[in-house]
Here is the input.
Amino acid sequence: MNILISNDDGIEAPGILALAEAMASVGNVTVVAPHRERSTASHSLTLHKPLRVFEVGENRYAVSGSPADCIYLGIRHILKTPPDLILSGINRGANLGTDVHYSGTVAAAREGALMNIRSYAISLVLMGQLVKNELEQVPAEPLRYDVAAEISKRIVEETLPLEFPDHTLLNINVPNLKASEIHGVRVARQGFRYYESQVDRRVDPRGKPYFWIGGGYEGFEKEKDCDCDAVEAGYASLTPITIDCTHRELFLEWREKLKF
Here is the structure.
């Protein structure tokens, strides 16, 4: 079995190293990841400037582009044939609910799903475990990528025999807890997360304005069976995501009602 692994945290991120190590017992692993962090890159492809590929180790390649670029090049140039599996992660931080629309981690798996390859996005949820030092916010607890890697490996192994609908990916979120503290895995639907609508206007040394956007996390919509709820309760969440964004009920209703 051939496995392609990518992420959006960069080729040297501890999450991707832990995932590649865990999956080595499942199949032949090739890692193709951005040469630097590309968080929140979403599903972007680099079409207006050249891309560079650097071989940084045995079956390990860094790409000067987005996570989706890595999957595109990984399949069409490096591997030259589609892999059996694509895994993206392990991301440092959650990709729950509506985060999936911004996430480079999920986008790499989505690029695989577009090609109809069985794909998984994997994230480690920090559970609010951040403290501020002099320079930045840092985790108050150790980041347990090894735990997330083992849970993800088990999910992959248990879902391999199952039928995978066309153009579908699985989004996995594992709480950053000790293995003994994780209650299991819940199949969950996509939830809805909220953030502050923050715009920070500043002025550069030449007197011209510039902006920082994006505020802090404010919580999630309290709905039963959603991924946010599962992780908060101490479970890893497993959410099937499809490429087709059509609102099916509205499509059927309006197709009958609207006559243009």
Q: What stands out?
A: The helical segments are 14-23, 67-79, 104-114, 145-159, 227-232, 248-257. The longest helix spans residues 145-159. The chain has a mean pLDDT of 92.
